[in-house]
Amino acid sequence: MSAALEPARVDRLKVAYSVRNLDLGTPLSLVHHSDHQPRHGDLVLAEVTKVGYHEVIELTDGRKAKLYLGDELLLAYGARYAPDHFEAELPDDLGACDLVAAGGVLGKVRSRNAAVSAPTTVRPLGLVGDSAGRVLNVSDLALGAPLAALRKPPTFVVVGTSMNSGKTTTVASLVHGLARAGLRVGAAKLTGTAAGGDPWLFRDSGAVVALDFTDAGMATTFRIPLERLVASSVLLHGHLAARGVDAIVREIADGLLQPETSQLLDRPELRRLTDGVLFAAADSSGALYGVQRLRAAGQPVLAVSGLLTASPLAVREAQAGLDVPVYGPLDLQSPALAGELLRRATAEATVEVGEVLA
Fold first, then answer.
1. Cβ atoms of residues 37 and 93 within 8 Å
2. Mind listing the pLDDT tens digit of every residue in the chain (358 residues)?
3. Which of 83, 128, 156, 336 sits at 20 to 30 Å (Cα–Cα) from 14?
4. pTM above 0.70, yes or no
5. What is the C-alpha separation between 220 and 240, in angstroms, rounded?
6. Which residues contact 124 (CB under 8 A, 6 or more apart)?
7. Could you tell me if 229 and 264 are in contact, meaning their C-beta atoms sit under 8 angstroms apart?
């Protein structure tokens, strides 16, 4: 059963970043299926019943809107993997659930970090559908196939030890350094939970185009089948390359122990697109472990960065056990250093190709 969502009601909704690619000018409906089991990315209209940890929601334009009891939100169902915040799973039904990310993801909290309070709770009012009553999904809002690129731009991947290890800062710093060197740079966040801060930071840093997994039709990548993550990563890379950029910098969220991160790094499709890896670590021991793990998997590690670079002592500890340099954000923002990393990446890629041919 479905009923039209009146335009006046749609105008009053607080529409989350996770569904930012939805055209609110098209006719929408509110769909009631009592036996529907939510799918990752299903669009849902929900009412705030208790304001908890998330006191704001990130809107499609990035503005943080304060939440009040009774607010109606347009969100997407999904799971979340965030050791610093919530571990959440996809709900089994359309009953009461939790706002597990400010970017607009609804799930059921399984555990939470002791440093955060109980989640904001909501009551789903119905699924959001098109004019015919077909339930809409974030996957319906994904980019289409990209135009074929004339060449593959040199591509970096940034991965880290964990959430908040400095990955996004590393990406932004490298993007800025490459842009200062006169290059057109594309950036993408391949995995994580919907939030606009990272791609907007990449643009602020000098990227001519910045995309994330929401552009590939996912509100969150936790619990998403690996084949879909691989396909979305290739899709985003293709769209960046089609824009004629000179270099691409991509971020894989969370840490090496996160299942999707580990599996994605090992996929040959991504390996073929990767010319150099920068590893972000929160401390020196994490840096040593990460580089060792990546090297064992044959990844072309070029350097270490991340939160550890805030401490000169931690940098010395790490550097003593590493055979790659450790760079802080200001280092990576140097056009000379960024250019040198680009040269090293392309040189290593050429060596690998030569070894294969031999």
1. yes
2. 899 999 999 999 999 999 999 999 999 999 998 788 999 999 999 999 999 999 999 999 999 999 999 999 999 999 999 999 999 999 999 999 999 999 999 999 999 999 999 999 999 999 999 999 999 999 999 999 998 887 899 999 999 998 889 999 999 999 999 999 999 999 999 999 999 999 999 999 999 999 999 999 999 999 999 999 999 999 999 999 999 999 999 999 988 988 888 899 999 999 999 999 999 999 999 999 999 999 999 999 999 999 999 999 999 999 999 999 999 999 999 999 999 999 999 997 654 444 433 3
3. 83
4. yes
5. 20
6. 44, 45, 46, 94, 95, 96, 97, 106
7. yes
Identify which of 83, 84, 133, 82 has the alpha carbon closest to the alpha carbon of residue 105: 82
Site of tokens 């990576």: 332
* DSSP SS3 for 326: strand
Say which DSSP state 88 is in: E
- Cβ-based burial of 66 (10 A; exposed 0-12, middle 13-18, buried ≥19): exposed
What tokens does 143 get? 């980019």
Nearest of 301, 321, 15 to residue 160 by alpha carbon: 301
Distance, CA of 168 to CA of 171 (rounded, Å):
5
Strands (E), 269-322: 276-280, 301-305
| Pick from 333, 104, 272, 84: nearest CA to 196 | 104
**CA–CA separation, 288 and 49 (whole Å):** 46
Structural domains for the chain: 2-141 (no CATH), 155-357 (3.40.50.300)
On whether the CB atoms of residues 4 and 27 are closer than 8 A, the answer is yes
**Residues in CB range of 234: below 8 A, 6 or more apart:** 269, 270, 273
